[in-house]
Design brief:
Layout (H helix, E strand, L loop, with lengths): L13 H9 L10 H20 L4 H21 L4 H27 L5 H30 L8 H27 L16 H6 L5 H7 L6 H31 L2
């Protein structure tokens, strides 16, 4: 792997950094399609650019948070329109790519830090709930829904997102504690990841949620797509909870 601390006159090019990063990727096992085929490659480019600019992973995480919460604030504060939908979707997609870039930059620099991982998780946890609360406010202020019961959709989505995120972190933590050889529980980055699984998991990909905001200016279209994503994510959560619980119950 290239050394990101090389003096400026000998600094690797962005293309060399991208090539180096391509050999240090996380496993694609279980990764939904958008993250696997779009977000991680985009994050790789952003990580290479950030490295050339001399940025730290925490600075990239901070940039991701600023861009993400700017998009989320627009959802709740500005009357919906097709133009707003495009702006929000692009901001959220950029923030998501930056969220991938911080970890890749950390690996490029030789490894992450506990405070960097902490910051990344706090930002992810906050935005994963805040985005659905912003949708709830948006629907209440601007959509004038015919059926008030639809307001339950972003509430349920927010609950699902919080449980999903917390359970993933908790499961990984408990596996680390109770597994004698933690390396055995880590996926091999070079192991083949089935394409079909990545496609099936697309509705659970945060990137697909970001894309859905392109329809923010169309009430019926956005409500339909967002509600469909909520149902799919709740179904995935139910299946995953059973799987994670059984995996921790095994001797």
């Amino acid at each position: 792997m290239l050394n990101a601390t090389t003096p400026h006159h000998a600094s690797p090019s962005i293309r060399q950094l991208i090539r180096s990063l391509s050999t240090a990727q996380k496993s694609n096992l279980g990764a939904p399609g958008y993250s696997r085929w779009i977000n991680r490659p985009a994050g790789r480019v952003l990580a290479a650019i950030a490295c050339r600019l001399g940025m730290t992973p925490n600075q990239v995480t901070t940039c991701s948070a600023i861009v993400s919460f700017a998009g989320i604030a627009l959802i709740a504060a500005v009357p919906t329109s097709p133009v707003l939908g495009v702006i929000v979707a692009l901001l959220l997609m950029l923030a998501y790519a930056l969220d991938s870039a911080d970890g890749q930059l950390a690996r490029l620099r030789g490894g992450g830090s506990p405070n960097g991982e902490w910051l990344d998780h706090v930002v992810d946890c906050t935005k994963s709930s805040a985005i659905h609360l912003a949708v709830l406010i948006c629907w209440f202020r601007f959509f004038h829904l015919e059926h008030p019961s639809l307001m339950l959709v972003p509430i349920v989505f927010c609950l699902q997102s919080a449980v999903w995120f917390f359970t993933i972190i908790l499961t990984e933590h408990l596996r680390t504690i109770h597994t004698a050889a933690d390396s055995k529980s880590q996926a091999n980055p070079r192991e083949h990841a089935p394409y079909l699984r990545s496609i099936i998991m697309l509705p659970a990909d945060y990137g697909v949620l970001c894309i859905s905001f392109f329809l923010l200016g169309t009430v019926t279209g956005f409500v339909t797509l967002y509600s469909t994503l909520m149902v799919c994510n709740v179904a995935f959560l139910i299946v995953a909870l059973r799987k994670w619980y059984k995996s921790l119950s095994a001797p």
